[in-house]
Specification:
Length: about 280
């Protein structure tokens, strides 16, 4: 059995192409889609991610503004800044880079983002709508995971998907998206008993654990599809690629899996938001 490598860069490229064309059409109407990224503190990885997002905006015809707040920023100051961005008509999407310093109430800060600008699906309102099946902006990595499966025409309906991780930005929303596409979903987490047994039942495995090379090949059923959402130091995912590859029908590499598609969705959602806001002004 040969294993198909699911190329996230290829999926991202197609989404970016459409986003670029739509951004251009908006510009012709005098609207420049703009993403605001908010970074608090000095985490070097977060700096890199924010820079990458800004560069992607530039490349595909969006504006971006970068707000960098000092490490000692309080929850109140961060919420105040987010509210300012909510009421700025030039800003169409707001991304608060996660994680924020531990003294900040991250949930409170996320909840301050206006629903129309919640392009990464981090508010409980946005998450709730997506879970109900009608939300506009699912969290970007989960949306990217579904896009990869769809691009490669991997059936979801009726399949048993096992998601490892239940974070509000990844494990939970991807489980909901898979459920909405009629998969049978098992969600595993740190208190799950006999994780390898659950993983061995999966037709589709989504690893979102935050632990390098965590999922081992001998847990995996022959012919499973493996999506590795993990990204750990040293460019390694949450899946032990070497041992999982020979068992899998299809697998995402790290880097080059859900990562690039996540950025593509962030830009796409920002353009979606700009188009929607433009329609609201016209009406
Ligand atoms: P997170 O908030 O730390 O959540 C990790 C999840 O894994 C938690 O639900 C935790 O369970 C579970 N877990 C931890 N240890 C486990 C164990 N031994 N067995 C089973 N489950 C376990 O992480 P996250 O933000 O969701 O990120 C997960 C991974 O995705 C990371 O590698 C991150 O770098 C990557 N990521 C990538 C992108 C991208 O753009 N590609 C975006 C976001 C995140 P509990 O809930 O019980 O604690």
């Amino acid at each position: 059995m040969s294993t198909l490598v699911l190329d996230g860069l290829r999926v991202a490229k197609e989404i970016h192409q459409q986003t670029k064309e739509r951004a251009l059409r908006l510009r012709e109407q005098g609207i420049v889609p703009c993403l605001a990224t908010v970074l608090v503190g000095n985490d070097p990885a977060s700096h890199t991610y924010v820079r990458m997002k800004g560069k992607a905006c530039e490349r595909y015809g969006l504006d971006s503004i970068r707000i960098h707040m000092p490490e000692e920023t309080t929850t109140e100051q961060l919420v105040e800044k987010i509210k300012e961005l909510n009421s700025d008509p030039k800003i169409h999407g707001i991304l608060l880079q996660h994680p924020v310093p531990s003294h900040i109430d991250e949930r409170q800060a996320f909840e301050a983002i206006g629903l129309d600008k919640d392009v990464d699906g981090v508010t409980s309102h946005g998450y709730g709508e997506v879970s109900m099946g009608f939300g506009e902006f699912p969290s970007c990595t989960p949306a990217g995971i579904i896009a990869i499966l769809d691009y490669y025409q991997i059936p979801i309906e009726g399949k048993h998907a096992v998601v490892i991780g239940r974070s509000p930005i990844l494990g939970k929303p991807v489980s909901q998206l898979l459920l909405n596409r009629n998969a049978t979903v098992t969600v595993c987490h740190s208190r799950t008993v006999d994780l390898p047994h659950h993983v061995s039942q999966a037709d589709i495995i989504v690893a979102a654990v935050g632990k390098p090379r965590f999922v081992k090949g001998d847990w995996v059923k022959e012919g499973a599809v493996i999506i590795d959402a993990g990204y750990n130091e040293g460019n390694v995912g949450d899946v032990d690629y070497e041992s999982c590859f020979p068992k899998a029908a299809a697998i995402t590499p790290v880097p080059g899996g859900p990562g690039p598609v996540t950025i593509a969705y962030l830009l796409k959602h920002t353009v979606d938001a700009a188009e929607k806001q433009a329609r609201q002004i016209r009406e």
